[in-house]
Amino acid sequence: MSTELYHTHPRFRNNFDFLRLFTAVYVVMLHSYGLTGQLDNEPLRSWGSTTFNFSFVRLSLFFCISGYLVMQSAMRSTGLGDFAWRRLLRIQPLLIVVTLVSIFIIGPLFSSLDIATYFKQLQTWTHLRNIFPPTGIQYNLPGVFQANSVETSVNGSLWTLVIEERLYIACMIIFFAGSTGKRKAYIFLAIAYNLIYIINTNLWHFSDSIIINGNAAFYSLMFVNAGLLFHLNIDFQSHKKIIWLPLLLLLTLAAAHFKNCFFLLIFIVPCLVMEIAFSRSFLNRTARFGDFSYGIFLFSFPVQQSVISLTNGNITPIPLFAITILITLPLAVLSWHFLEKKMLSLKHRPWFKKIPPPSTSSEPRH
């Protein structure tokens, strides 16, 4: 990339790439403690509470960033096929690779079953469903990581993709069921979803459905409300950060402190994340050499489980984190340059009208 393009390209005028990378690396650290049974000893976790902790921070960043950028993708897409194609190109290629690696390499190497028996198990082949998370995730493979004392999942990180890709499908229905009024339809349905969640959570509990109750609904609303901010055309780049960032941070801490106000975080946190995302700093250049966040996210959990198995569980969080990063980062770099980047270059198919990218940020990435 030329120096001139580097300084003028939209993606280098925000912190979305940094926040994605931060979130991916923090997932590795969080799981390093969780998979060794020491989650309560994780240093940053001790600063928070049972609800407002650094897992909350990680998930909030993940869903807010995704919600905002996916709305951009939906609005620039020429139709259902264009939008679906963009999403599939971003999520599925590497997910297919990781799923196949799990079945045909990790499985035979770490299963307590012999290879012939392993491949005769139906569970081995139903693991292929992980290629398309909206149908649900299968976390285990026959006999694999069964000696790992804390967790036997091959890739426990994938649960977030179930929610995210189901939200993609919801976006498809909203944006492409009709030909006009997409923005207004989204705003109306987003407000309705918020009201139903708030009523069910705080005023009259009428349903235990995960759609409007619990963590899945809470983080789905982070996604939805971040998208709502995009549709409201708020110019976060022009805001005075010295005022808005401290104010939103204080509101976040206050809402988290008072149990009856916790639901307000679904509105406050997306605003805070966008203020951070649209701040100008040297961190804007994070993805100059590539976007490695998705590769780190997908590869890290199987790598951690493999390391724990090879060490018979005799490893502590910090060495596990260091070893995982040393293995995962090169895999993520290779994945970006030889797979993800090439797949994204196919996003404009001949039967889709090519539309210039928006001026506010980059093509949505995990």
UniProtKB/TrEMBL annotation:
Highest taxon of the lineage: Bacteria
Membrane-spanning parts: 21-39, 51-70, 91-110, 158-178, 185-204, 210-230, 242-258, 318-339
Return the InterPro entries for the record: Acyl_transf_3_dom, Acyltransferase_3
Q: Which residues form the Acyltransferase domain?
A: 14-336
GO MF term list: acyltransferase activity
The protein, known as: Acyltransferase
Q: Which PANTHER family match?
A: ACETYLTRANSFERASE, ACYL_TRANSF_3 DOMAIN-CONTAINING PROTEIN
Q: Does the UniProt entry include the keyword Metal-binding?
A: no
Which terms are listed as keywords in the entry?
Acyltransferase, Membrane, Transferase, Transmembrane, Transmembrane helix
Q: Which Pfam families match?
A: Acyl_transf_3 (PF01757)
